[in-house]
Amino acid sequence: MFFAVLAVAGQIERNCIREKTLEGQVIAASKGNHGGRPKVIDDDMLTFAVALKDKGVPVPEIAKKLTIKAGKNAGKSPSVASLYRALAEAEATAADDGLPLRPKPARIRRPEDLLTPEEIDLRERLQSQPHPNIETRQTRPRPAPIP
């Protein structure tokens, strides 16, 4: 009985600590502090690195030309791996800018639905093309049955 009371008291204390922590995180986020380690490569460095990469400069040489501005490694060059990662993220972000956030839903047709003129043209073009494997397909001899 005594241990059950202590367990309940511990659980209540843990819930209070959790609520205070979440409240503190919400307040910090409203002030613009989202926690975590700051990024090594800022936007200016990334813009410079992308420009050099577009000119054909190898990434290890680009990393040597950059200097970290803040943090425990201030004054040093970022690692090549960090630069590759930042460049890949920038490429992915640039590639995603033109894409819709959600894919277009598929259109389901019934057999009695009529095709649009564009769909009829596409169907005719596809049906007039030769099958890619017809010329290269070879018939293999079937193995003899096992007696």
UniProtKB/TrEMBL annotation:
UniProt cross-references to PROSITE patterns, sorted A to Z: RECOMBINASES_3
Annotated spans, Disordered: 92-147
Domain Resolvase/invertase-type recombinase catalytic: from-to ranges: 1-32
Coiled coil location: none
Residue ranges crossing the lipid bilayer per the database entry: none
Molecular-function annotations in GO: DNA binding; DNA strand exchange activity
Domain of life: Bacteria
The protein's name in its UniProt record: Resolvase/invertase-type recombinase catalytic domain-containing protein
